[in-house]
Design goal:
Blueprint: E1 7-11, H1 14-24, E2 32-35, H2 42-48, E3 54-56, H3 68-77, E4 82-88, H4 97-106, E5 110-114, E6 137-141, E7 154-158, H5 161-171
Parallel strand pairs: 2-3, 2-4, 4-5, 5-6
Antiparallel strand pairs: 1-7, 6-7
Helix pairs in contact: 1-2, 1-5, 3-4
């Protein structure tokens, strides 16, 4: 209810949340990930767990965030097929999700939000991070160093029933 998404699945960590989303989107050797180098290594490592290639986008030097422009430059230069763009909201600052969503659609990519540093943030006064208006899924981490902490834990929000069902099955050993 707080995130205003249709589905919310908890798991044991933010890394597990990323891995579950990437796996449900079939990231792999032929479907790569584009993300930020300014983040905890789990954002990229979870893609490597799927055997997916990872490339990094430049970031805005003032905010440390990926922008539609830096993403598009990287997509144009990329020699690998990028299926997923994982944006990272950093330190409570939010990426330009509308602009990034437009670029992703232009290049046939899906957008994931790593909102480990943005639980409780709003795009505007009525759209909470995690509502997945501009992404297929958002992940959160509740690690002890996060501003909303439970010692450990993660969460995935999505509005896509097939992603939610796949995550629930994979999270629970296929049961």
């Amino acid at each position: 209810k707080k995130f205003k998404s249709k589905y919310s699945m908890v798991c044991n960590s933010g890394t597990a949340a990323l891995h579950l989303v990437y796996s449900s989107l079939n990231l792999g050797p032929k479907n790569g990930l584009l993300t930020s180098p300014i983040t905890f290594l789990a954002t990229a490592n979870a893609a490597k767990m799927c055997n997916a290639p990872v490339i990094f986008s430049d970031v805005d030097q003032e905010t440390g965030l990926m922008t539609p422009e830096t993403i598009e430059k990287t997509l144009i230069k990329s020699k690998i097929n990028i299926k997923v763009i994982a944006v990272v909201h950093l330190g409570g600052r939010l990426c330009d999700m509308k602009g990034i969503s437009d670029i992703a659609h232009k290049y046939g990519c899906l957008v994931i939000e790593d909102a480990s540093h943005a639980a409780g943030a709003f795009y505007n006064t009525s759209e909470p991070v995690g509502n997945c208006k501009y992404s297929v899924a958002t992940i959160f981490s509740f690690n002890a160093i996060k501003h909303i902490a439970m010692g450990e834990g993660g969460c995935v929000t999505t509005n896509k029933k097939d992603i939610a069902q796949d995550i629930v099955m994979k999270r629970s050993h296929g049961m």
